[in-house]
Specification:
Elements (H helix, E strand, L loop, with lengths): L1 H4 L5 H4 L13 H17 L17 H6 L24 H5 L2 H13 L1 H16 L1
């Protein structure tokens, strides 16, 4: 994720970004959202040079350093879309539905499907004779 955002693994902890090498983004949408968030974070970042006399590539300009302020509160909050909830009227059919019984019957049907197919094949063989 940091690599896609243009941040090396060694640079990430020095600028305040956590990196967990064990995790992988399996979802392309979340990966792109995280990369975009890291890029905006990096664009807003003011990096002070380690030595004041020698500025390296990636360090901020002296003008940016002079106007830099400490951020209070959440820096870039993660804004997720809240899923919409659809309200429906509870019908008599919904009230009378027995979920546990339905699950038990479906599990039983799945368990006995082989024996039932074998029995149907034997009955078909008997019918042909």
């Amino acid at each position: 994720m940091c690599h896609a955002a243009g941040i090396s693994k060694k640079l990430a902890p020095t600028i305040g970004t956590a990196v967990d090498h064990r995790r992988k983004n399996r979802s392309l949408e979340s990966l792109q959202a995280n990369v975009q968030r890291l890029k905006t974070c990096k664009a807003k970042l003011v990096v002070f040079p380690r030595r004041t006399r020698k500025c390296k590539a990636g360090d901020s300009t002296p003008e940016e350093l002079a106007t830099a302020t400490q951020v209070q509160g959440p820096y870039i909050p993660i804004a997720g879309d809240k899923p919409s909830v659809e309200l429906v009227k509870v019908t008599e059919e919904m009230k009378s539905f027995k979920a546990y019984n339905k699950l038990r019957v479906e599990r039983m049907n799945e368990r006995h499907i082989g024996a039932r197919m074998k029995k149907a094949a034997e009955a078909e063989q008997e019918e042909k004779k």
